[in-house]
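# step 3/5: fold
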Amino acid sequence: MVIQTRTQASAEQRRIEFRESIVAAAFDEFAQRGYHNTSIADIARRLGIGHGTFYRYFENKRDILDHVVSDTVEKITGVLTDEEPSDQASSLDEYREQSDRIARSLQEIFHADHRLIRILLFESTGIDRELTERLTGLLETAASLTGSISRTASSAASCAPTSTLRTRPAPSTG
């Protein structure tokens, strides 16, 4: 019984890994050819599999695009939500530092794979209303999170004594 369970777990793990390889191949094809110019045959050929194998894992090209976008959205959302609420800025300097951390993390993501921008901004938008709304939701989430950080810092700054608001040395008048 234990052997059967291990075998099943191993088979499930291989299935998950193979599914991820299909998503990666689709990402490569969409980034290289564009969504509309990529066919299921292109994705299958990249992996050396038949169409039938593809359809055991995904319903159609739009279905796999959802997975490609999900992976990308998860990376971006992760960066935006990594900042713990307890880490929220309580001064303008802390706000700048927090904003810089977020910007550096996002830059690392997009620098590591510049194709992400093409997938998100050019290939995914306009496919259909659902996907467009999903990407708009990502932008709204980003705006909400950064707005929350900004409001917290602004509130703290407005309550702080004037001497603590200086973030740069006063210019010399000499």
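# step 4/5: annotate
The two ends are 85 Å apart (CA to CA).
# step 5/5: archive (pending)
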